[in-house]
From TrEMBL:
Keyword Signal part of the UniProt annotation: yes
Keyword Transport recorded: no
Superkingdom of origin: Bacteria
CDD domains registered for this protein in UniProt: LysM, M23_peptidase
Coiled-coil features, chain-numbered ranges: none
Protein name per the record: Peptidoglycan DD-metalloendopeptidase family protein
N-terminal signal peptide: 1-24
Organism whose genome encodes this protein: Comamonas nitrativorans
Sequence segments annotated as region (Disordered): 106-153
Pfam families to which the protein is assigned, alphabetical: LysM (PF01476), Peptidase_M23 (PF01551)
Keyword annotations of the record: Signal
Length: 279
């Protein structure tokens, strides 16, 4: 009886050891990272991923951990739908680390046909009291402190947009290329946010760090972004007019009610205050 019991225990031990060994062999799961619109994507050998032959070429971008198609579009001044189409993505909801996507239209060299900045003098802007007419602290400086260099003059095509202020509040955080890629405008929950210029809505949704976000494309070079909204009043592909009510101010994915407003040229953030009228 003892011998039989010892045999059974030994056999069970062997089974358990074999099971664990099998788990060790099959548990080499690929690393998972956020991809597409925030869903997980699997990393594999980059050489086997779509677009691998274009890695490093101008006009293409290699997906990094944490990327989403929306963020890639914002950083390159393009609609996520255009990038998905140009890259012939079978499923735009999922992109993989190491995958290469096209971020300029096919047949177009990077920077081709882009406007050259002119020597127009910078527009001086003063903050408007917030909605309701109550006084608030002075606006923060919008000087680009990341470089310490003199501001670059606005280009003629920026001036042609005729930008207006998207919200009626004081600036509480100025532009800085490394720490704040736009300006933060104070207000209270529900205050109106308007389109700074006429254009086409290319994104309405959520993005980490931006909360409820709207992106409007004004030309092939310029887009504006409106973040931390409480309620969004437009849809993707919708054409909007300058001054049109597009959202209500909120505090989504941030610590206070405010509008984070960005102006980007070819995906590069630039100080919007210098292109807005005095008020």
């Amino acid at each position: 009886m003892c011998k039989q019991k010892k045999f059974s225990l030994g056999f069970c031990a062997l089974l358990v050891a074999g099971f664990l060994a099998g788990c060790a062999q099959t548990n080499e799961a690929p690393v998972e990272t956020r991809g597409g619109f925030g869903r997980t994507a699997t990393t594999v050998d980059p050489a086997t991923l779509p677009g691998a032959e274009n890695a490093g070429k101008p006009g293409y971008y290699t997906v990094k951990p944490g990327d989403t198609l929306i963020r890639i579009g914002l950083e390159h001044g393009q609609s996520w739908k255009d990038i998905a189409q140009w890259s012939q993505l079978a499923n735009p909801n999922v992109i993989e680390v190491g995958q290469v996507v096209r971020v300029v239209p096919p047949g177009t060299a990077p920077g081709e046909g882009r406007a050259t900045p002119t020597a127009t003098a910078p527009v001086q802007a003063t903050p408007l009291p917030p909605a309701g007419g109550t006084a608030s602290a002075p606006a923060a400086s919008s000087t680009n402190t990341s470089t310490g260099s003199a501001p670059t003059a606005p280009s003629a095509d920026v001036a042609s947009l005729g930008l207006i202020w998207p919200a009626a509040g004081n600036i509480i955080s100025g532009f800085n290329e490394t720490t704040n890629k736009g300006v933060d405008i104070a207000g209270k929950a529900g205050d109106p946010i308007v389109a700074a210029a006429a254009g086409k809505v290319i994104y309405v949704g959520e993005m980490r760090g931006y909360g409820q976000l709207i992106i409007i494309q004004h030309s092939k070079d310029y887009l504006t972004a409106y973040a931390h909204n409480q309620k969004m009043l437009v849809k993707e592909e919708q054409t909007v007019k300058k001054g049109q009510h597009i959202a209500q101010m909120g505090s989504s994915d941030t610590d206070r009610v405010k509008l984070h407003f960005e102006l980007r040229r070819q995906g590069k953030p630039i100080d919007p205050v210098r292109y807005l009228p005095a008020r």
